[in-house]
Amino acid sequence: MGGVSTVENGGNYGRNVREGTHWFSTANPSEEPGPDECPKKVASGPRADEDEELLDPVIEYRHRRSTTAPIDGSVVIGGSVYDDSAVGGIREKYVFGNWSGDGVIRPDGEIFAATPPSPQDESDLWSIEELRIAETDNGRLNRYVLAFGRDHDGELSVLTTENFTPTGGTGAVHRLVSPEDAEGSSR
Predict the structure, then answer these.
(1) Which residue, 169, 171, 94, 179, is CA-closest to 139?
(2) By C-alpha distance, which of 127, 14, 109 is closest to 60?
(3) Which residue among 19, 26, 76, 106 is least enclosed by CB atoms within 10 Å?
(4) Rounded to whole angstroms, how far apart are CA atoms 185 and 121?
(5) SS3 state of residue 182
(6) Which has the closest alpha carbon to 146: 129, 163, 133, 134?
(7) If you ran DSSP here, which 8-state letter would residue 126 be given?
């Protein structure tokens, strides 16, 4: 289990006792601790403070063996909040990727958009939707996702490769465009 967090100055995300929103024991990581064993605050060490609560992630990201998170993947590739209007439907959403949805076996990268919950929503986790690639049969990149970037106009691009190790000439930069703009395009 993993997660994506919004960073707060000095925040503690419980990295040594949590994976995403799930607790684990550093002494026995293969067993999930009971609710009484899950700390809500920093209990010991240099950051021990009765008033410092551990901060939850905003996106939960499961790895192949887990079944409770909305995304099943291998490695979160951090992205950016999209603040332009050229690509409809993702404005003010956090766009990020998954290195490969099929683990390391074959290039199967994915792109997602996450939306913060509304004030009346009971969950603190953001809703997630997969952004589908128009030019592929399966709607995925069919490449490994390496990184995201912005051009001089603020538009988002995703950097990819066909190889497990980014060597050779298989790297590519793909600009995110709306489905209407993608028709008849090689982007």
Answers:
(1) 179
(2) 127
(3) 26
(4) 39
(5) helix
(6) 163
(7) P
Least confident of 55-59, 71-75, 183-187: 183-187
Per DSSP, the residues of 11-55 read ----TTTEETTEE--SSSTTSPPPGGG--SB--SSTT--TT-BPP
More confident of the two residues 174 and 23: 174
For residues 81 and 99, give the distance between their C-alpha atoms in angstroms, rounded to a whole number.
Answer: 18
User: Parallel, antiparallel, or unpaired: how do β-strands 110-115 and 127-131 relate?
Assistant: antiparallel
Structure tokens at 33: 């601790």
* C-alpha span between 117 and 123 (Å, rounded): 7
CA atoms of 157 and 81, how far apart (whole Å): 12
Tokens of 126: 């953001």
Q: Two tokens at 23?
A: 């607790």
- Over pLDDT 90: what percentage of the chain? 14
Q: Return d(Cα 187, Cα 135) in angstroms, integer.
A: 9
- Tell me how long the chain is: 187
Strands (E) in 82-164, as ranges, are: 94-98, 110-115, 127-131, 144-150, 156-161
Going by C-alpha positions, the residue among 123, 60, 132 that lies closest to residue 89 is 132
Q: Can you count the helices (H) and strands (E) in the chain?
A: 1, 12
Q: Which two tokens stand for residue 114?
A: 């996450």
